[in-house]
Every structure is written in structure tokens, then in C-alpha cells.
């Protein structure tokens, strides 16, 4: 036993690890990674050879190359995309300009149509109001002419000297008529002025209609008819303007290129001058570096000498500390002495010290050092004891849980085993007992400090059955026949299935050594348990076929076995033929 880490041994093989785990009660691990617990559990190491680092590195290199290629393709596509986007932007800008121009023309056309409609409405309103005004003007003219004739007649009458011959009533009538004449004269003048205003407005509107609006209407209609031709002309003019602008830009770019060429030549000359200056600076730098190297060598020598002196000083100080505590007046006492005097005193002191050469001068320091180490070790021991106690408590708790789980599982399996065996053998009885090491059990009873049951005390499981009756003597497995052992094993498997069911079970000729009665009982039990699991059996007896749901026949053709789905009748015929042949 050479290599042990904590409570784990490193072993050469799995067999050595198993034996040492049993004998030394320590956990073991092999070089292949297999772990063996002193409790009895095994854990296998595993290394996936498919996950090779070389393969991962190769795949990583390949993926990085692919990523670089894809990045390059992506950059190319980005450049193409930028070119396409520039072309699209140019086309969109041209479309926007055309749409803007079209919208402006459309707005102008709509505005002109609105103006024409308003002018037509205004003209229609004027025409509508002109006729009644003309009629009123004619009536006013006729009234005016009648009044003028009446005025003339009245004037002629006024020239006659009739007032003296008129009565008072006639005189009043004359005055009234004169007043009416004056009023009618004023109204006539107002009607004439109104007539003149209306005629002026009429002439003005007729001039506006004939000179401006009609001509503008004709111009707009002609513009609407020729708008496509005008657009093409405008587009041609705009293209020519753009060509001239581009030509101007090309000339400007050429001028800039010539300027840049001149600048490049100047920069090249400047670069040559700077290159010469750089070479000169580099030579100066090399000279400076050489001087620095020489100074560094001198500095290294001084530093090494200084370090040697520092070591000597440290050594002297260490020796002074080893002497113990110096007197308070030591520095004042020896500070003014010369080096020769100090050497003489040192020599005399060494002679005195030779008398005490057998005394251990480091005893006190060693005692203090060992005392501190002891305190640290005791503190560490206390921590380790606490950790050990907590680990032992955890292990005892886990052992208790494991013990309770084993007891619970054993009781369930024992109960189901008795029930299943009773169904398979109605007149029989069976019991399942746990075997315990007597020596360990007695040692456990004598040890009062033992609080947790040891699972290592369990050495196995004993099965005792009776096939002849409840009062008959129960037998061990060694005393049973082959068929009885098979039946007991099936009962034990069915009991475990009830306790911890598996998805499916595969039975290979389990009824070979059973009699027909027990075969039927096994078939009934499988039929009862098939609700929670799937049972696949191979048989040469007809009893298991009665309760089966699916049948497969195995045939041997051309030295190869073939499995085919068959019916229940075909399976029974096959079994009967096999029994007749045997």
C-alpha cells in the first residue's frame, strides 16, 4: 500500500481495487477511472475516443477557414449591395424629381382650371344680372323722356303770365308739381350715373373675357395638349444641364488630381528628406544606446557591489539580532571608535564567546517557534476533528437512509413474493428472509455507542418455500427440484416487478421444467401483470399461447433465422408438431 490520498487508494486493476476495498474499508480508484466504494458500489470510468482534441482542432481550423471565406464573400456582397443601393438611389432621385415636376404641372393646371371655372361663374352671374338692369335702364330712359317733354311743356306754361290768374289751389298744385319735377330730375341724374357705371363694368368684364380669359383658356388647352412634348423637351434640357454639370465636375476632378499629383511629388521629396533625417537620428540613437550600454555595465557593477555590501550589512544585522537585545548605550559607546579598535574588541569578544560554545543560543527562539507551530497544529486538528465529525454524521445519516430504503424494499418484495407464490401454488407458502452476519450483529449489540445500523451486516437473502401445504415443512432452495426452483425464481421476478416495474421482460423458455398446471399459473400471472409492462417469451408449450396477444414464428431457411408474424392457430400447430417430434 503505497499511494493513498485522504481515504482513497490508487490501484493497478479493478480486481486489486475490489479486494483492497473489502479488506481496508477504503474507497479505491483504478488508473482507468473505475471507482470501487468500500460500501460495495462500482462506478466505471469512460473516455469517449470520438471526442479527440486533434479532430476538434482540425474541425476548428476548417470552420475558421470557412468563416474567413464566408466573410470575404459577405464583404463582396456588401460592396455589390452598396453599388446597387447607389444605383437605386440615383433612380429614385430621378423619379422624385420627375414626380415633383409632374406634381407642379398638375397643381398649375388645377389652379388654372379653378380660375377658369370661377371666371365663368362670375361672367354667368354678370350676364344674368345684365338683362334686368337693361330693362330697368330702358324704363328709366322712357320715364326720362316723358319727364323731359313734361318739363318743356311746363316751362312753356311758366313763361306765360298765368300765375296771376291762378287760384290758391292751383298755385299749390303748381308748387307741388315743381317739387316733383325737381325730385324726378335728381332721380334721373342718379339713374344716368348708375347706367354709366354699369356700362363701364360691362365693358371692363367684356374686355377681361375677350382679351385675357379666353386667350388664357386657349393657352392652357394648348399647353395641356402639348404637355408631353414639353416634358420631353424639359427632360432633354435637364439631361443636357446634367451632362454639362458632370463635365464640369470631371474637369474639377482632373484639376484636383493634378493638384494631388503635385502634392504627392512634394510629399515624396519631403519623405526623402525625412528619411535622411531619420537615418541620421538612428545613427545618433545607436551611439546613444552604445553609451547607455556601457553606463549600464558600470551600473551593474556598482549594483552588484552595492548588493554584496547590502548582504554583508544584512548578515551583520542578523548576527547582531542573534546576539539578543543590545544595551541602550551600545550605539553611543561604539560609535566614536575606529575600525581598528572595533576589530580588537571583536577579537576579545570572540575569545570570551569560545568559553560558552557548548550553550545552545537558539533554544529560546526554537522554543517560541515550536510553541507557535503547536498552537497552529492544535487549531488545525480541532478544525479537522469538527470536519471529521460532520462527515461521520453525514455518513451515518446516509447509512440510515440506505438501511431504511433496503428494509422498505425488502418488506415490499417479501410481501409481493408471498402473494405471487400463493397465486402460482395455491396450496403452498413462501417466505423471504434477510441473512445477517451473526458475529457483526453481536458486536453491534455489545457496542453501546453504535447508533446507525450497518448495511455490511446483511450477507444475503434466503428463500424458504412449501409446495404441499401451509403446515408442511418449508424447504431451502438447495432442496428443491429444477422445476420448483424455476417457479420460485419466476415468483421472485414477478415480486420485484410489482415493487419496481421495468418497461419490458424477456423470458427464454421459462416453462421448460414446469408441469402443465404451473405453466397455466405462470401464464395467468403474466396476463395479470401485462397491464404495466411488456412480456416477451419463447416457448415450446401450448399453455403460454392461450394468454398471449401477439405471436411470432422463428424459421430457419438457408442457414439464417427469420422471424415472421403468425396467427394463434399456426403457433399452436407449430408447438404440437414439435411435441410430437420430441
UniProtKB/TrEMBL annotation:
<feature type="domain" description="RecF/RecN/SMC N-terminal">
    <location>
        <begin position="152"/>
        <end position="560"/>
    </location>
</feature>
<dbReference type="InterPro" id="IPR003395">
    <property type="entry name" value="RecF/RecN/SMC_N"/>
</dbReference>
<dbReference type="InterPro" id="IPR036277">
    <property type="entry name" value="SMC_hinge_sf"/>
</dbReference>
<dbReference type="InterPro" id="IPR027417">
    <property type="entry name" value="P-loop_NTPase"/>
</dbReference>
<protein>
    <recommendedName>
        <fullName>RecF/RecN/SMC N-terminal domain-containing protein</fullName>
    </recommendedName>
</protein>
<dbReference type="Pfam" id="PF02463">
    <property type="entry name" value="SMC_N"/>
</dbReference>
<feature type="coiled-coil region">
    <location>
        <begin position="167"/>
        <end position="284"/>
    </location>
</feature>
<dbReference type="GO" id="GO:0051276">
    <property type="term" value="P:chromosome organization"/>
</dbReference>
<dbReference type="GO" id="GO:0005524">
    <property type="term" value="F:ATP binding"/>
</dbReference>
<keyword id="KW-0175">Coiled coil</keyword>
<dbReference type="GO" id="GO:0005694">
    <property type="term" value="C:chromosome"/>
</dbReference>
<feature type="coiled-coil region">
    <location>
        <begin position="67"/>
        <end position="129"/>
    </location>
</feature>
<feature type="coiled-coil region">
    <location>
        <begin position="339"/>
        <end position="366"/>
    </location>
</feature>
Amino acid at each position: 500500500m503505497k499511494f493513498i490520498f485522504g481515504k482513497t487508494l490508487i490501484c493497478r486493476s479493478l480486481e486489486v481495487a475490489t479486494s483492497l476495498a473489502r479488506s481496508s474499508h477504503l474507497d479505491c480508484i483504478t488508473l482507468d477511472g473505475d471507482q470501487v466504494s468500500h460500501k460495495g458500489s462500482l462506478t466505471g470510468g469512460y473516455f469517449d475516443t470520438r471526442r479527440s482534441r486533434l479532430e476538434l482542432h482540425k474541425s476548428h481550423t476548417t470552420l475558421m477557414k470557412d468563416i474567413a471565406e464566408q466573410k470575404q464573400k459577405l464583404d463582396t456582397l456588401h460592396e455589390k449591395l452598396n453599388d446597387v443601393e447607389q444605383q437605386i438611389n440615383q433612380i429614385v432621385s430621378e423619379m422624385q424629381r420627375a414626380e415633383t415636376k409632374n406634381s407642379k404641372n398638375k397643381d398649375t393646371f388645377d389652379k388654372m382650371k379653378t380660375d377658369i371655372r370661377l371666371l365663368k361663374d362670375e361672367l354667368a352671374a354678370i350676364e344674368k344680372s345684365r338683362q334686368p338692369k337693361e330693362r330697368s335702364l330702358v324704363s328709366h330712359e322712357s320715364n326720362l323722356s316723358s319727364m323731359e317733354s313734361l318739363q318743356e311743356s311746363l316751362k312753356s306754361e311758366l313763361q306765360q303770365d298765368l300765375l296771376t290768374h291762378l287760384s290758391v289751389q292751383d298755385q299749390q298744385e303748381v308748387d307741388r308739381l315743381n317739387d316733383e319735377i325737381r325730385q324726378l330730375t335728381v332721380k334721373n341724374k342718379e339713374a344716368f350715373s348708375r347706367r354709366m357705371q354699369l356700362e363701364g363694368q360691362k365693358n371692363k368684364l367684356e374686355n377681361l373675357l375677350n382679351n385675357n380669359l379666353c386667350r388664357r383658356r386657349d393657352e392652357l388647352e394648348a399647353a395641356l395638349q402639348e404637355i408631353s412634348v414639353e416634358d420631353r423637351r424639359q427632360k432633354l434640357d435637364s439631361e443636357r444641364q446634367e451632362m454639362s454639370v458632370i463635365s464640369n465636375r470631371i474637369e474639377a476632378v482632373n484639376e484636383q488630381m493634378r493638384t494631388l499629383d503635385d502634392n504627392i511629388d512634394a510629399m515624396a521629396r519631403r519623405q526623402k528628406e525625412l528619411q535622411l533625417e531619420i537615418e541620421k537620428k538612428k545613427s545618433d540613437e545607436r551611439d546613444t544606446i552604445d553609451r547607455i550600454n556601457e553606463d549600464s555595465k558600470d551600473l551593474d557593477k556598482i549594483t552588484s557591489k552595492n548588493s554584496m555590501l547590502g548582504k554583508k550589512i544584512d548578515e551583520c544585522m542578523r548576527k547582531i539580532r542573534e546576539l539578543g537585545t543590545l544595551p541602550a548605550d551600545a550605539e553611543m559607546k561604539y560609535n566614536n571608535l575606529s575600525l581598528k579598535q572595533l576589530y580588537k574588541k571583536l577579537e576579545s569578544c570572540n575569545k570570551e564567546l569560545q568559553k560558552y560554545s557548548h550553550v545552545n543560543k537558539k533554544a529560546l527562539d526554537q522554543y517560541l517557534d515550536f510553541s507557535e507551530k503547536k498552537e497552529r497544529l492544535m487549531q488545525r486538528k480541532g478544525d479537522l476533528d469538527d470536519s471529521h465529525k460532520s462527515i461521520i454524521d453525514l455518513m451515518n445519516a446516509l447509512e440510515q437512509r440506505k438501511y431504511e430504503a433496503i428494509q422498505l424494499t425488502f418488506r415490499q418484495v417479501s410481501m409481493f413474493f408471498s402473494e405471487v407464490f400463493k397465486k402460482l401454488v395455491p396450496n403452498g407458502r413462501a417466505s423471504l428472509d434477510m441473512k445477517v452476519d451473526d458475529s457483526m450483529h453481536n458486536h453491534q449489540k455489545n457496542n453501546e455507542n453504535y447508533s446507525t445500523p450497518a448495511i455490511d451486516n446483511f450477507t444475503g437473502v434466503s428463500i424458504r418455500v412449501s409446495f404441499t401445504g401451509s403446515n408442511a415443512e418449508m424447504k431451502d432452495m438447495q432442496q428443491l427440484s429444477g422445476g420448483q426452483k424455476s417457479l420460485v425464481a419466476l415468483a421472485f421476478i414477478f415480486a420485484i416487478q410489482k415493487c419496481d416495474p421495468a418497461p419490458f421482460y424477456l423470458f427464454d423458455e421459462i416453462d421448460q421444467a414446469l408441469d402443465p398446471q404451473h405453466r397455466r399459473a405462470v401464464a395467468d400471472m403474466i396476463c395479470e401483470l401485462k397491464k404495466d409492462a411488456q412480456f416477451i417469451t419463447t416457448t415450446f408449450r401450448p399453455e403460454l399461447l392461450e394468454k398471449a396477444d401477439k405471436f411470432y414464428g422463428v424459421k430457419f431457411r438457408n442457414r439464417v433465422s427469420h422471424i415472421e408474424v403468425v396467427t394463434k392457430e399456426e403457433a399452436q400447430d407449430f408447438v404440437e408438431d414439435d411435441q410430437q417430434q420430441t
